[in-house]
Prior knowledge:
Layout: H1 2-24, E1 30-31, H2 39-45, E2 50-57, E3 60-64, E4 69-72, H3 81-85, H4 94-100, E5 107-111, H5 117-120, H6 123-127, E6 135-138, H7 140-145, E7 155-157, E8 172-175, E9 178-184, E10 221-228, E11 241-248, H8 261-264, E12 272-276, H9 288-294, E13 298-302, H10 324-334, E14 340-344, E15 349-353
Parallel strand pairs: 1-14, 4-5, 5-6, 6-7, 11-12, 12-13, 13-14
Antiparallel strand pairs: 2-3, 2-15, 3-4, 8-9, 9-10, 10-11
Amino acid sequence: MYKWFVNLISIVVFNLVFYHIAAAKELPWLHPAPEKDNIDAILSSLQANQMLVKFTGTGGVYLHTRDVGVMGDPFYTNPSMGQVILLRALKPNQAIIDKYLPPTDKIAAILVGHGHYDHLLDAPYILTQLPRQAKLVGSKTVNHLLKPLVNATRLLSTDDFRVSGLLPGRWIQIHPLVRVLAIESEHPPLIVGYYPANGQLKFGLAKQPRHALQWQSGKTLNYVIDFLSHPTLSGNEPSEVMFRVFYQSSASASEVGFPPNWLMEEKRGFDLAILSMGNFQRVKNYPTGILRKIKPKQVLLIHWERFWRPYEPGKGMPLPGLDIEKFLQLAHAAVPDTTNVVLPQVGASLIISSSQNIDK
Length: 360
């Protein structure tokens, strides 16, 4: 517990020192969020070869084609730093979630990168807003954390499927039009090689996690998400990939969390890489390594803003000490000039198109 408080107090001091510096900076790089989010109209107008990509805040993303969608690490509650530091009980802010949650009637799954509160706290409530067949996909620890909150039939553990060391991993078919590949990765250190709540649970909890320290990370995961052009029943069935997305909601050192060689040998490129920016300075060769490995056509940057400020689209402020300019320089240097690198404001959306030939 002492270790925890040392780290948490360090976070507070860090914020006080850098608050005015970060707040004073202009943010000319940001892809703006619309004043009025017309997402229903956007979804209804999508073509067969288009996908809506929305940054919902922190590590959260919303990916939606004309037929199906996936959410990753959705988080809207944004408890204050005081609530976190003083170990107050954390609960989803259902009013905020209901106000800003995009349409969920075609969402196939929620993908969870790890079990910290800023990645998982809101997921159980959001799952209740999804179709009954939709799953929450995450590590065994994530499953154990949510045992008191979510029916076991709606939880899907990646432990038997993920890429890890010499284990090649295998696809998880979460919908006839979507398959995902979970890849074991790592969480960046916060201070002096350490990050809080880094435990792994072996058994399901009897009571729901209460404060920030009880939301243990478990294994950190990256995901490859394939949106398919035609329905399949198994991730191993041949099917044309309409969109291939690499999703990384926590920075990691080079080679850690990379797609496996067998996948790269398919020669099917990545349409989009979604990369976390938080604490990137504390891991080696990031984002350079992963961008040079997968060579995505587009890059979306997330987890750059202060997730302890009240949630409000268009109002994100940079994490203290985060060198956004440096990250952008590294990203641009690692990809061709034709690659679009987007730093989105909270709530911002973009539409990407597939180069594959897709039946209308």
